[in-house]
Design goal:
The protein is of the alpha/beta class. The chain is 43% helix and 22% strand. The strands form four sheets. A six-stranded mixed β-sheet has the order 7-11-12-3-13-14, with helices on both faces. α9 packs antiparallel against α10.
Length: 417
């Protein structure tokens, strides 16, 4: 969705957000960055929910209801899995999604008539969605045929004007490496004890592990020998170089375990690698996989800087910039001045390049971010403010903490006898 309005939801009091191809959310802890990222994720996966509901084969044990009513139930369950119980939410909460100034979906609360102290999540669908769902009401089931499924996907993407598959990489990724023997039970958890986005992330990485039997290099080599598709080899080569510099090892999935292979021929199991390696290994794997696949992807990444040395934070920012240049969309939440500073370098290099200056020796063109396609936002005190001026991220967001620390040091030095 290109435009989202939020009122009184979680830490967010008011928000009127217009997204770009590359978006950055920053701000202190508990200001609503993750909440906003999940709201964006929810809206951008609406097409998947419509597809899954239409193609779901009904059974005799299902309660008879209209297709639209069942879609509401599906969306309500997902909303509660993402955000928790609605009973504690303010009654005037509202989330609205727009595309081309037309409302696509609105989410609000209403009281249960039988229990006025409780509320329930309700939906208002845009007219085009209502018509689309109505056209499939009671239709013959043809979704066993792959061509019919593909046709439906194309119709839904055209309906929502959203060609992207959405991938969410949550914060707290390194904890998963300590729970490898618990993965099955986590995936089977139908309740709300595990965050919905985390559970989807676990399912996705578990399904993709076998592709990385010989790491990213092995995946590329195998694809070159088996696929007729044209691959972005220059971009993949650049991404591989960034991966090597950050991981200082080669990931592989062998003998049922995830490994980080070292230059001396030995390896460590990934759950014994450094926390920075654990945090980033699947960020890089997913970037490489989807870049190689070539299908437009909307990637949401929480805190890519987690547990990384500043130099590595700069490198992972460059990897995200590279990914965002290839017909993909990227949303990043971050606390890091190094990440923000790296993005600013990419933005300014693009500006100089467009003005005729050659900045390619400093920031490669494949990593440069177009200013008109980039947006940054700062969350504070329940509000979301634009955080770019003249095409660059506001400098006080990058250097604010350093200025405060340096100011304190100057005061301390002034106290010297």
């Amino acid at each position: 969705m290109e435009h989202i309005r939020i009122r009184n939801f979680g830490p967010i009091k008011s928000c009127d957000l217009e997204l770009r191809d590359f978006a950055i959310l920053t701000g202190a802890q508990a200001t609503g960055k993750s909440t906003l990222a999940k709201i964006i994720y929810y809206g951008n996966t609406l097409g998947q929910e419509i597809f899954d509901q239409i193609t779901m084969r009904a059974s005799e044990e299902d309660f008879p209801a209209s297709l639209l009513r069942n879609l509401e139930k599906r969306l309500r369950l997902k909303f509660l899995q993402l955000f928790g119980s609605s009973w504690s939410m303010p009654e005037d909460m509202k989330i609205s999604y727009y595309e081309d100034d037309h409302r696509v979906l609105e989410i609000y609360l209403s009281e249960l008539p039988s229990q006025p102290y409780r509320n329930v999540v309700r939906f208002i669908f845009g007219e085009q969605i209502r018509q689309f769902v109505a056209e499939h009401e009671g239709a013959e089931y043809v979704w066993d045929v792959e061509e019919e499924r593909a046709r439906l996907w194309q119709e839904i993407r055209a309906l929502l004007k959203n060609p992207y598959q959405t991938v969410y990489i949550p914060a707290g990724r390194s904890t998963l490496t300590l729970l490898t023997d618990k993965i099955a039970s986590i995936l089977d958890d139908a309740g709300r004890s595990v965050d919905y986005c985390m559970r989807q992330y676990i399912r996705q990485t578990t399904e993709l592990r076998s592709y990385f039997r010989a790491g990213t290099r092995g995946l590329l080599e195998e694809t070159l020998h088996t696929s007729q598709a044209k691959l972005p080899l220059e971009e993949l080569k650049m991404l591989q170089a960034l991966i090597d510099r950050v991981l200082v090892g080669r990931y592989s999935y062998e003998a049922g375990e995830e490994r980080l292979n070292l230059e001396n021929g030995k390896y460590v199991k990934i759950n014994f690698a450094s926390s920075g390696q654990q945090e980033t290994v699947w960020v890089f794997n997913l970037l490489f996989y989807y870049l190689m696949q070539g299908q437009p992807t909307f990637l949401i990444v929480e805190e890519p800087e987690s547990h990384l040395f500043p130099n590595s934070q700069k490198l992972i920012a460059e990897a995200l910039g590279l990914f965002g240049r290839q017909k993909n969309c990227v949303l990043v939440t971050t606390h890091s001045p190094y990440i923000l500073g790296a993005f600013n370098n990419m933005l300014y290099a693009s500006h100089l390049q467009e003005g005729g200056a050659d900045a390619s020796s400093i920031v490669p063109p494949l990593q440069q971010l177009a200013q008109e396609k980039t947006a940054a936002f700062y969350l504070e005190n329940g509000f979301v403010e634009k955080a770019m001026e003249e095409g660059l991220i506001c400098n006080e967001l990058i250097d604010g903490a350093s200025d405060e620390i340096n100011g304190e040091m100057e005061q301390l030095l002034a106290l010297r006898p």
